[in-house]
Amino acid sequence: TTKTFDVVVVGAGPAGSAAALEVARAGYSVALVERGPFPGAKNVYGGVVYGRILDELVPRWWERMPVQRWVTRRATMVMTPTQALTLDFRTQDWGKPPYNGATAHRADLDSWLAELAVEAGAVLVPSTVVTGLLRDHAGAVVGVRTDRPDGDLTAGVVIACDGVNSFLAKEAGMYRTGHEAEHLTLGVKQTLALPREAIEERFAVSGRDGVDIEMLGCTRGIPGGGFLYTNLDSVSIGVVLGLTGVSKAKTRPEELIAELKRHPAIAPLIKGGEQIEYSAHLIPEGGYRAMPELIGDGMLVAGDAAAMCLAAGIWLEGVNFALGAGMYAGRAAAAALKAGDVSGQGLAGYRTMLERSFVLADHRKLRDLPGLVLSDRMQQNYPGMVCDLVQGLFQVDNPLPKPGLRTLLRRSAKDNGVRWRDLVRDGWTGMRG
Ligand code: FAD
Questions:
Q1: 350, CA 20 to 30 Å: which among 2, 217, 230, 235?
Q2: What is d(CA 280, CA 188) in angstroms, rounded to the nearest whole number?
Q3: What's the CA-to-centroid distance between 429 and ligand 1, angstroms?
Q4: What is the CA radius of gyration of the chain?
């Protein structure tokens, strides 16, 4: 039988476009099927790309990527409702080639990445939903079903890049335990328009330099965190919330964003910003232990579809992981087609490439971190303890003699319900990460 395409890639997010790009570059025919009217139309992220893998995928990518600002300042803020301690770093090294991170709008970024694949020869099929898998009598995947009339597409290899909660990976039986809610967070984001000059003044940057700020302790004890990023003439502010936590707390995410926007450390930065966009999306944050099978007969899974998005709230590398995984999936599919074996065994090179690269190596190294980052201790007890400790150090309480560091530590730990045993164990896990 004749195949419609050598490879069908489902989903034109970063993973899908990178996969299609590599397959097309290897000289095979590839369809990139996207349910949205254009790539990025349905996608959400905080807004920063730390895409080191682009160096390999697109030489001198910084000359072509639709960037808002180059991140030259990164800050981590630990807060309670009335306190904030910020670790704030800036370097001008990140403001020149080869750069480090950039803010970019998803619609721009995803469209640009898909365009690269199309330039290399991929066929973009927008406004088309893949509704299921086609299999042969032995169960091997041989294509996909779509919502178009006569919409079956047969292929040697199907690469599922359909994002978090991948229906295709589930249908293929690749998720052993199912995608449990505790491995998912809900990201909610507002984009606020602000004049360029206001952003430069308030965030102390000029030209195309930009800032990313991550926050811990701003979600009323619901596991998660907050973020604030600068675009050219808007800022993105949002929260990431553990799904089970947010449903138990019965708090609406927009209330938490409103609260964050009122925080004394944040309010002056975003004052007068008019909301021009509101969006929400799930994030798979279970890490290495929550990943599905990555390879089946005639099928590969990459990016968020394979839960390769470790602790996005802290690493901000979901896009980087997706680009890397997509690239290796594309290469593995091309190699399997060349060798004439698209069975799971023929596609096994995918796993090897992932294990050798940052994609799986980092996930493996950080496998214990998701549990820690999303724990109550990390969310509430430690931020409170750290803020109280620093307040104790900086506060002048004459005529009392100054308390020693040990006393302050003991007091701030006790007041915030921190147990030493947990602190030592978590410190060890954190340091290993
Ligand atoms: P996606 O980008 O989700 O792409 C999947 C694509 O598949 C979509 O285009 C979708 O429309 C399409 N699709 C799905 N099902 C079908 C179907 N059946 N048929 C056809 N098409 C289909 N990462 C970062 O690097 N930096 C950040 O700052 C950052 N912040 C984040 C903040 C939030 C609030 C969220 C939600 C995520 C954030 N992430 C961040 C994570 C990042 O967005 C993801 O890891 C990344 O988008 C994964 O890429 P992907 O290609 O695997 O999946």
A1: 2
A2: 4
A3: 28
A4: 23
Coil/strand/helix, residue 412: helix
Q: What value does the mean pLDDT take over residues 312-325?
A: 83
Compute the distance from residue 14 Cα to the ligand 1 centre, in Å: 7
Quote the pLDDT of residue 139. Answer: 96
* Residue 188 CA, closest ligand 1 atom number: 34
What the block records as the tokens of 399 is 């005529």
* Ligand 1 contact, 44 CB (< 6 A): yes
Instruction: Report the largest interatomic distance among the alpha carbons of the chain, rounded to a whole angstrom.
Output: 90
The confidence band for 368, taking pLDDT boundaries of 50, 70 and 90, is confident
DSSP state of 45: -
**Domain 182-284 falls in which CATH fold?**
D-Amino Acid Oxidase; Chain A, domain 2 (3.30.9)
Number of Cα atoms under 13 Å in the Cβ half of residue 275: 11
Given 3.50.50.60, 3.30.200.20, 1.20.120.530, 3.40.190.10, which CATH number is that of 5-68+103-179+289-367? Answer: 3.50.50.60
DSSP characters for 159-226? Answer: EE---SS-HHHHHTT--SS---GGGEEEEEEEEEE--HHHHHHHHT--TTEEEEEEEES-STTSSEEE
